[in-house]
Amino acid sequence: MNKSKKEFPLKKLLKYRKYQLDKAKLEYQDQLNICRDIKNNIEKNYELKKKLEMEIYIKQSHGISVSEIISYMDYLKNLEGQIIIFNDNLKKAESMLDLKFKQLVKSLQDKKSLELQDKKFFENYKKYILKKEQKILDEINSNRFIISMRN
What we know:
Helix 1 (about 10-60) packs antiparallel against helix 2. It is built from two helices and no strands. By secondary structure, the protein is mostly helical. The two termini are about 45 Å apart. The chain has helices at about 10-60, 65-150. The chain is rod-shaped, with a radius of gyration of 35 Å.
């Protein structure tokens, strides 16, 4: 196998870090969407609760049976329970969101660090090649000088 281009050791690791960064971005975005959906569900339940409370108030002024009031109150308790569950889920989702954000930042820092190391490695490699070329040129010139002195 003859490679014309030198492969730097950090390239594969950089590709992997880029993959990790992209994955962390997607996971963060997914978690953000989950939080947004939970917040929307909480708002919908609050609006439905207000609407039902208004219906009960209106129906009470026109006369409503006890069984209907009990049904409405049971449904309102159910909505309040759902709101509590959604709030708990939201807290968990937000803590997971914080974790995903930290992972995203860490992935970004790792990628930047590796890019910097790769750049330094490449610069050192270029210096090494230039020194080698200079050494060869010096040898050629010294050989020319020696040959010219013989003639």
